[in-house]
Amino acid sequence: MQNALQFLKTNLRWLGVGFLLTFASAFGQTWFISLFAGDIKAVHGLSDGAWGSLYTVATLASAALMFWRGSLADIVPLSRLAPAMTLVFALAAVLMATAQSVWLLGLTLFLLRFCGQGMLIHMAMTAMGRWFEATRGRAVAFANLGHPASEVVIPLLTVLLIASIGWRTTWLGVALVLALVVAPVLWTSLRHERTPQGMAHSDSMTGLGARHWNRTDALRHWFFPALVPVLLTPGFIGTVVFFHQVHIAEVKGWTLAQMAPGYSAFASLTVAASFLSGWAADRFGPHRLLPLLLVPMGVGVALIGPAENVVMWYVALAIVGLTQGMASTLWGGLFPAVYGTRHLGAIRSLGTTIIVLSTAIGPGITGMLIDAGIDFPAQTLAMGLWCLTLAAGSIWMARRLNSELAQGAL
């Protein structure tokens, strides 16, 4: 405990930057934007299908831009990039508050998803991976606390604001928070970069073969292609579970109010798993966590199918939260350990693109299955089997990677 407090005290400024970036990313997350869905659809005359399609296209476009420009984290100092992206984020919030046409709404969604779901998280995890080495897992875990913190604080406050000042004015408030609070705090905190620097000048942390890998080399190596299904799965399942919560309530005969405590269970276990996996990654190596990653999610999501009592919903979300907490920490530590830090932004942007892609395609695929007569609880059984199958395959991945890391071989 004393060592943890000393670590926090010594690195509070840098850890705070990561926390603030992940916390502020909430304004571009699906769960936040969905709070305004009813008003947006009513104002723009959109059906559920049209709204979902527009959202999917905007998210896919943001994923494409992440793939193309995520390497900015290797080129532009974080002291300039983080405040600049936050101001773009604020502009997107202003556009959401003022958009009068569907095409402008689409552009707004694209910017919100690119900044929130993409760049702010990408910058936070790239910085933690580059700034910390021996304590990288704990640093990533602390930075990721911004996610559950925002999920606890922001939803209720947002609902109250919408009711009192209206949804458009609430978005203007979001813009003011980003422009007048988040951006200045980031600029002030990053005036003096941490060593190693928050850009690709440090050669101190190499990956496999004692070298720094670029994106092309990573794609040619067996590990990244093998990792893609594992990268896709937590985002896909985590998104659709929340996206279809109303449908689940209708199928099960529950109310949303009855289901609400499940989110507290989810957030609590996410935080616990994040810190525990951060310690384990520092102690044993992040690659050793791969076989464990999808086991809780597989068990948890499969419980939704046969659940009759709403208490099982709480249990299911809590268990799914274990994987979500592990995943955020694992990716933050695994990429620098395997590929080094010189091109970390470019390689992480590839991983982030895949994760964002999974959040885009998930609602569409599961929604079509629901329309075809396969309700979501029935789908969860197949999702659980998928997770456990990937977990078994990850044992081979972890063993092979461990051998290469130990031998320094390619």
TrEMBL record:
Taxonomy, superkingdom: Bacteria
PROSITE patterns on file: MFS
InterPro entries named in the record: MFS, MFS_dom, MFS_trans_sf, Proton-linked_MCT
Transmembrane segments: 12-37, 49-68, 80-97, 103-124, 145-165, 171-190, 222-243, 263-282, 289-307, 313-338, 350-370, 376-398
Keywords: Membrane, Transmembrane, Transmembrane helix
Domain Major facilitator superfamily (MFS) profile: 14-410
Cited Gene3D superfamilies: MFS general substrate transporter like domains
SUPFAM superfamilies: MFS general substrate transporter
Protein name: Major Facilitator Superfamily protein
Source species: Roseibaca calidilacus
